Amino acid sequence: MNADTYRFFGWDYMDMPADACSRHKAVVEFIDSHAKNVSRMEFVFESGRVVSATGWERSYVSGRL
Predict the structure, then answer these.
(1) pTM, whole model, 2 decimals?
(2) pLDDT in tens, 9-51
(3) What is the DSSP string of 4-41?
(4) CB atoms closer than 10 angstroms to residue 30
(5) How far is residue 57's CA from residue 28's CA, in Å, rounded to a whole number?
(6) Contact present, 21 and 48 (Cβ < 8 Å)
(7) CB atoms < 10 A from the CB of 1, how many?
């Protein structure tokens, strides 16, 4: 993966009390704009540490409407 940008959809609200040590997931898309590839990765955290990272890569096309 040779990403030059990334995209992450943040949390707009939390519907439960914050617990930094519980299990959390975050999805980040890494974009290689030169090769036109995007890698979608899901990171799983427990007690603030990454315990798992899985994902896939695929090509994409973008343009103006």
Answers:
(1) 0.77
(2) 877 766 777 787 888 889 999 999 999 999 999 999 999 899 9
(3) SEEEE---S--SS---TTS-EEEEEEEEETTTTEEEEE
(4) 19
(5) 12
(6) yes
(7) 12
Give the span between the Cα atoms of 6 and 36, in whole angstroms: 13
Alpha carbon distances (Å) from 17 to 13, 26, 27 = 11, 18, 21
Report residue 44 as tokens: 């799983």
DSSP 2: -
pLDDT at 48: 86
Phi, psi of 49 (to 5 degrees): -115, 145
Q: How far apart are CA 23 and CA 21, in angstroms?
A: 7
Across the strands, what pairs with 30?
Answer: 6, 39
